[in-house]
Design goal:
By secondary structure, the protein is an alpha+beta fold. It has helices at residues 2-16, 108-111, 128-135, 141-153, 158-164, 187-196, 226-234, 249-262, 371-389, 401-404, 415-430, 437-451, 459-464, 535-544, 559-571, and strands spanning 22-23, 30-31, 171-173, 205-211, 214-217, 238-241, 267-273, 288-303, 330-335, 339-342, 347-351, 358-365, 472-474, 477-479, 490-493, 499-504, 507-512, 526-530, 549-550, 575-577.
């Protein structure tokens, strides 16, 4: 019956969708108005709406200084226009992109309401709360991340996902289990955040609408007070929270684990949309998107890239007119417990059914994490090294090269042109010999560590970390402030991915994440200057993870150096001990 209900819901939606409520810009009162024609030229792209457009990661705040240290109101709802076009069986958009293989989804004919599929059994799994507790007992942080991702996309295996869907095509998982993601985020959590925190319009929250083909943002200035926010919502506006991880410890915990699965920042936005409305225009994003339906239901349409330049784009698109995006390659209704994945470059839009609101969270990753982004770091340094080390790159150009080279001379038959082009090609090929590939990867890693959320410690980890040292003011004096790390103390890194040792100029810097902000780029990158004699000890800790090692086994010159290194890293929250430290 549940699968049939899904089919029925989409059929009813298509049959009943008509002009919805619109909102007076002056009175904020919902009123009906006649259907209007779309404005604007089809395909005309307005200026992007800023860092929060689409499913992007959110806006950074101004920095607060680098960490150092050295060892040694318009309120509109959506008005519907006509009925949804039926899905077509052929692939639309970019040629060669297959229709998505759907897990746990009714056949396409059934989605159109032409038949009633057999009911499917609910896809079950551990609760999020229970899973996070279980993951806290997993010693290796990469294994934690892998298990969390496996739960996220179950019943699809990670191997199947990365082989068949990742960066290739959408994946729809319908679980028939509304409680699968329960506890991750809720409308009640959203309301509590508004009441208990300084949520700012345009920084933490966007108020949006998509009416008559026009996408608008309605952010007032200042704090997003509950009465104002809920008034926007009541009048048909969508509410997008740009960085829920800054306010929700559960979302923070979830993303801080998941980011190690991708080796790239894991961000999130939440979207709360009133029944019968749409908050965003069709567009594509520059991230891999995992749409997790938490409450209610939402009607989604996904479209393939329209040409080669839109496949895995480096940047998000502008807003598209409906007339230029073609027919969807996937159309469905997401219900609570379902997941929809689509790669960057796939145009998408979602709107609410007339009888239900929608709350979903979009988890995103792999922004600016392509081979091209790596080469942007690598090639300038490579060329500079080649110029410094190889005289051939410093030799002068031919005196007469302007006579036969350039666009105006591109059709001229001249033997000098062939020799010139061949010389350039050879110099480009030789650049490979000077490419500091590892150093460029370290620079990418440094950026990733700046993007990262700080690790959220379990209660057990806190007891073993600097946060568990019972230093305090008591009876007019400081108590238990000494950190009693000795040669026999067993230590290990808190997480595998929390540090990166990089060559910077003439020195070594150790970048780390434990002092990052939960707000994206609120702080400058955190680093420590490291004397060369301590690098072997740091590398030893990295290679030993997740095993505990005795401080006396660290490959430093003296026992004092070993204890100094362990104490310094412990104080920065980078090391934990096997047993809680007993104050001296």
């Amino acid at each position: 019956m549940e699968a049939a209900a899904r089919v029925s819901a989409l059929w009813v939606y298509r049959s009943a969708a008509g002009p919805g409520p619109s909102v007076s810009l002056r009175s904020r009162r919902i009123k009906k108005r006649p259907k209007q024609s779309k404005t604007g030229v089809p395909g005309d792209c307005p200026a992007p709406a800023g860092p929060g457009k689409g499913e992007q990661l959110g806006a950074p705040l101004p920095g607060r200084g680098a960490a150092g240290g050295k060892l040694g109101r318009s309120r509109k709802g959506k008005q519907r226009e006509g009925y949804l076009a039926p899905m077509q069986s052929q692939t639309s958009g970019l040629q060669g992109i297959p229709r998505p293989q759907l897990a746990g989804v009714a056949p396409m004919g059934a989605v159109r309401g032409t038949s009633s599929p057999r009911p499917q059994e609910p896809i079950t799994g551990p609760s999020l709360h229970g899973l996070l507790q279980e993951l806290g007992r997993v010693q290796h942080s990469r294994q934690r991340a892998a298990k969390l991702f496996e739960w996220l996309i179950a019943p699809i295996s990670p191997q199947q996902f990365f082989e068949q869907s990742w960066e290739k095509k959408p994946l729809l998982i319908q679980r028939h289990n509304p409680g699968y993601y329960q506890g991750l985020f809720s409308t009640a959590t959203f309301d509590a955040i508004l009441r208990d925190n300084d949520v700012l319009f345009g920084v933490n929250l966007d108020v949006t609408s998509y009416v008559d083909g026009t996408r608008e943002t309605h952010n007032p200035a200042g704090r997003a007070l509950p009465a104002v926010v809920w008034d926007f919502y009541r009048n048909g506006c969508s509410l997008r929270m740009l960085n829920p991880q800054a306010f929700s410890t559960t979302v923070w915990h979830f993303l801080s684990i998941l980011q190690e699965q991708f080796g790239s920042m894991a961000g999130a936005n939440t979207y709360l949309t009133p029944a019968g409305t749409q908050g965003f225009a069709p567009h594509y994003d520059d991230i891999e998107a995992f749409v997790i339906q938490l409450e209610g239901k939402k009607h989604w349409r996904v479209y393939g890239p329209r040409n080669d330049t839109e496949v895995l784009p480096q940047f998000s698109s502008c807003n598209f007119a409906q007339e230029v995006i073609g027919e969807p390659i996937l159309e469905t209704i997401l219900e609570a417990g379902d997941l929809l994945y689509f790669p960057r470059g796939f145009i998408h839009q979602g709107d609410c059914l007339p009888d239900a609101h929608s709350l979903h969270i979009t988890v995103s990753s792999y922004q600016r994490n392509s081979w091209g982004d790596l080469l942007e770091k690598l090639l300038p340094t490579t060329l500079q090294m080649a110029i410094e080390e190889d005289v051939e790159y410093r030799q002068g150009l031919p005196i007469d090269y302007l006579e036969y080279m350039g666009v105006l001379n591109s059709d001229v038959v001249d033997s000098r042109r062939g020799a010139f082009i061949e010389r350039v090609q050879n110099l480009i090929k030789k650049l490979v010999d000077y490419a500091p590939i590892d150093a460029a990867v370290d620079q990418k890693a440094k950026l990733f560590l700046h993007d990262c959320l700080p690790p959220m410690l379990t209660e057990h980890e806190r007891a073993l970390s600097i946060h568990g040292v019972p230093a305090r003011w008591e009876d007019g004096d400081v108590r238990d402030a000494d950190i009693p790390i000795k040669k026999g103390t067993q230590v290990r890194l808190l997480r595998q991915g929390i540090i990166r040792l990089c060559n910077e100029g003439n020195g070594l810097l150790l970048y780390y994440t434990t002092e990052n902000s939960r707000v994206y780029h609120k702080e400058e990158p955190k680093y420590l200057e490291i004397d060369p004699e301590f690098t072997d000890g740091i590398e030893f800790l990295l290679s030993s993870y997740p095993k505990y090692v005795c401080v006396e086994t660290l490959p430093c010159d003296t026992l004092d150096d070993k204890i100094s290194l362990a104490t310094f890293l412990f104080e920065k929250g980078l090391l934990i001990t096997k047993k809680p430290l007993v104050p001296i």
